[in-house]
Amino acid sequence: MKRSPVTAALLAVCLSVLFVGRASASPITYIWEGSLSGSLAGNAFTAEPFVLTINTDTANIAPYANGLFVPNDSVTIDILSQTLTINSTTITYLNDDFDGITFSNDDLEYDILLMFNPALDGFDLASPFGPLVVSPPDTFVSSAGTPLITSGGNLLIADNANATLTFTAVPEPASAALLAVGGLVLIRRGAK
Fold first, then answer.
1. Considering only CA atoms, which of 60, 54, 72 is closest in space to residue 26?
2. DSSP-assigned states of every residue in the chain
3. In the list 67, 89, 99, 147, which could disulfide-bond 154, CB 3.0-4.6 Å?
4. Is 37 exposed, middle or buried (0-12, 13-18, 19+ CB in 10 A)?
5. Which residues contact 142 (CB under 8 A, 6 or more apart)?
6. In which band, very low, low, confident or very high, does the pLDDT at 182 lie, cut at 50, 70 and 90?
7. For residue 131, is the peptide bond before it cis, meaning its omega torsion is within 30 degrees of 0?
8. Tens-digit pLDDT profile for residues 86-127
9. Banded model confidence at residue 191, pLDDT cuts 50, 70, 90
10. Which pLDDT belongs to residue 192?
11. If you average pLDDT over each of 54-58, 142-146, 168-172, which comes out highest?
């Protein structure tokens, strides 16, 4: 049975909507990069490069008074030549009032990494984004004197208003790949 081009196009649109709907509630990774000073397990360090990797699910994004937030499912930090799991409860906030994004200690309701930039206006915490590099005075790093609990001991981050931070959001690649493969199959079938 041969489908008409209109039928094939309609089928492609319907399947695309179906896959896009499923992709909107999928894993996403947020990545913060920069340098930190502070101490790990009581050992002081200064201006050490770090990569903070946050994994979460876009299905858990929710509104709050000034924007959106999502609880972080798992968080690791690469610092001091090791990868540590952060065991403290953390959350990512997107504040629409001042175009800011934060990595926060949910137990204390305190922002640890914070950046402001107009490019964040309209970001939805679920879409690909960045990398966005923001320099002082539009960044801040702090742990409010309370350490994060990690697999390598307590991580105490020193206050720093002079940090350059990079933020990137990377959705699960499998969803986009699945959508692309589905579209190619439909195009090929329509060409027969």
1. 60
2. -PPPHHHHHHHHHHHHHHHHHHHTSSEEEEEEEEEEEEEETTEEEEEEEEEEEEEEEGGG-EEETTEEEEE-SEEEEEETTEEEEB-S-EEEEEETTTTEEEEEETTTTEEEEEEE-GGGTT--SSS-EEEEEE-TTSEEE--TT-PEEETTEEEEEPPBSS--EEEEEEE-HHHHHHHHHHHHHHHHHHH-
3. 147
4. middle
5. 110, 111, 112, 157, 158, 159, 160
6. low
7. yes
8. 999 999 999 999 999 999 998 777 899 999 999 999 999 999
9. low
10. 56
11. 54-58
pTM of the model: 0.78
Closest residue by Cα to residue 148 from 100, 113, 188: 113
* Residues 167, 90: Cα–Cα separation, whole Å: 16
C-alpha torsion 105→111→117→122, nearest 10: 50
Kind of pairing, strands 139-141 and 148-150? unpaired
Q: Distance (Å, rounded) from C-alpha 55 to C-alpha 60?
A: 12
Q: What are phi and psi of 155, to 5 degrees?
A: -105, 110
Residue 80, sorted as left (phi over 0), alpha (psi -120 to 50) or beta, turns out to be left
Contacting residues for 192 by C-beta, under 8 A, at least 6 apart: 2
pLDDT reported for residue 161:
85
